[in-house]
Amino acid sequence: MFEEYGNIDAAAREIGNMGVIYHFLGDFQQALEYYSRAIAYYEEVDNKVFVAWCFGNIGELYSEEKFDGYDLEKAEENLLKCIALSDEIGDTSNNFYIEVIAALYRKQKRWEEADTYFQRFYTYEKEHQNQAGKKADEKFTHERREAEREKEIAVSKAKHEATEQLLHNVLPPSIANKMLDGTKLIAEKLPSVSVLFADIVNFTKLSQRITPEELVEGLDNIFTTFDILAEKHGLEKIKTIGDAYMVVSGAPIQRVDHAESMANFALEMVESMKEFRSISTDEEIQIRIGIHSGEVAAGVIGKKKFAYDLWGDAVNTASRMESHGEAGKIHCSEEFIHAASPSSFSSLLSLPSFTFQERGEMEIKGKGMMRTFYLENRSNQ
To answer: Phi then psi for 66, rounded to 5 degrees?
Structure first.
């Protein structure tokens, strides 16, 4: 608008301010372009004070090591232009750039020149008699510091938000919030949860027939589907280990229906696998699932890479249910059925919501003889 109405001096001021903003943001190339445009306008209206100011800013910009165009010779050239022009008109408002060039010479170990300009800088500071010029200089310094402070606040806020988002991505929301509130050690005992392990059948053979890209993409598609189902049923994914998937119901927030929600999740897992086929053989990919209910200890481990994890016999037993199961089936412990319903059961078990087929007693590694079952489907009841 200033350009449109011919107010070149005002337009130059705002263009110069844009240069300052880009300078603070670290967009040095944009800053350089705006400072150069401002010089052209200020020269048009013969405003030598601000022409000198722009040269000083350009000199300071070239001395920024983060600038791709970092060039101490150009920094010196523009700073000397600023100082020479200020001397020509008897203006001391740009005294700051005398300090900048002194620091630049000190950086280059040009001690004599550095000392000369430092002495000059301090002399001007002491002899600054023009109160109006001093106030303008103080205002500029204040605005610059405020801009830097606001930038620091913005950076700090962005880092905090990034940390918060990262914690919520890798940890359950309730656990992430505890950590953000400053809780150092997160550990608790949960008396009754349901733990599920799932494993892709013949994964090693499948992985040898396909490229790494196909392998990663395939696993990502399958586990993403599981993640969606886990969120749907209010479960918490604990981790993936290779082709194995671990999820818990009833942690970190306890729930009375943890077994029922886990049963629904497991049935939908099996159903969802019908969508996936082997790239090499076009055969349906199958998973083996094991579930057990019981007590666990839960907490967060790690200092840089956080992980919410579970420990205890219930975890080990759920893993054994999976490893002793069969392809395409959901292998469950007797404890899981009790958790799903307090009703008594027989060889063919019909609960209010699900149908189980008894597998019978079998030797489970590390557990001895156990009575186990297969979750067949949802009951028609």
So the answer is: -75, -15
- Show the domains of the chain with their CATH numbers: 8-128 (1.25.40.10), 183-378 (3.30.70.1230)
| Contact (CB, 8 A) for 105 and 89 | no
- How many angstroms separate the CA atoms of 75 and 54, rounded? 12
Hey, what are 88's tokens? 């020509």
Q: What is the mean pLDDT of residues 355-375?
A: 90
How many Cβ atoms sit within 10 Å of the Cβ of residue 119?
A: 12
> DSSP alpha helices (H): ranges in the chain?
8-25, 28-44, 48-62, 72-89, 96-107, 111-126, 131-170, 173-180, 203-208, 212-232, 258-272, 313-323, 334-340
Cα 217-223-224 angle, rounded to 5 deg: 85
Q: From CA 149, how far away is CA 49, in angstroms rounded?
A: 27
* pTM of the predicted protein model: 0.55
Q: Is 102 exposed, middle or buried (0-12, 13-18, 19+ CB in 10 A)?
A: buried
Which residue do the tokens 């037993």 mark?
A: 317
**Residue 227: CA atoms inside 13 Å, Cβ hemisphere, count?**
11
Burial call 48-86: b when 16+ CB within 10 Å, e when fewer = eebbbbbbbbbbbbbbeeebeeeeeeebbebbebbbebb
Two structure tokens written together for 175: 């656990």
Q: What is the pLDDT of residues 72-113, one digit of tens each?
A: 899 899 999 998 988 888 887 777 888 888 888 888 898 898
